[in-house]
Amino acid sequence: MSDQHSHTPDLDETTSVITDAAAVSRENHMLTEGAEPISLWVILGSAIIVLIGGGVLFSGSLFNYNDVVQSGYSRQAPEGDGAGKVVPKPAILAFSKLGEKKSVSCKGCHGNDGGGSGDIPPFVDSEWISGPSLRPAMIILNGCKGPITVAGKEYNGNMPAQGDGLSAQDLAGLLNYLRNNFGHESDTLITIEMAEDALATSKERGGGQVTAAELNEKYNRDLKGEPMDPNTLVDPKTFEPVAAE
């Protein structure tokens, strides 16, 4: 066999084994550079900085309430006397506050100012709100359809029922809120007992939207129940009357 086939191919004339080996060595050094273990002193130093910073933050010296809040501003006091005891409120205020929270979905159509729009009648100056109290309760619980005249103007909208999941307490709050806002001022407090009368009447009716004619013919009366002075102090959570201390 000739020497031509007895040895490996010659390297290219431009190839330098020494140079290429040095290049590989440099590449390996570059890949591992920066991946060396972190010094224990660096870790301890960082931990000390974090501890000092946390001490400054939580000591109040950096974010001191008196330094960052405008003079004369006072934080809203939580409901209670500071010892966990609930402070009684006049019934009309307690119910109206609850009603305002429950009125969010109503305002989505009738507007935040209760002015209505298009075929949606207003809350403002509405005789259906300020009049006999069963009528607005039946509208809330069952919805309303067909022509209805409000404050001298005729509307022909289609309001869906809003009574799903509404408790007697919620309904009482909503009625008191509507009947004491948007240009209304009622001398009568709608109690939970009265709201229960509305729920029972609505259940007996059997469902479906009411019409203006039906409201005037069948439900043109006040809700039944023992009256309560609007200024009676009540527990704002249970709405039960409490004795003044």
Automatic annotation (TrEMBL):
This is Cytochrome c. The keyword Transmembrane applies. The chain crosses the membrane at residues 38-65. Residues 218-245 are annotated as: Disordered. GO terms for molecular function: electron transfer activity; heme binding; metal ion binding. SUPFAM superfamilies: Cytochrome c. Residues 218-227 have a biased composition (Basic and acidic residues). Keywords: Heme, Iron, Membrane, Metal-binding, Transmembrane, Transmembrane helix. Gene3D superfamilies: Cytochrome c-like domain (1.10.760.10). Residues 84-182 form the Cytochrome c domain.
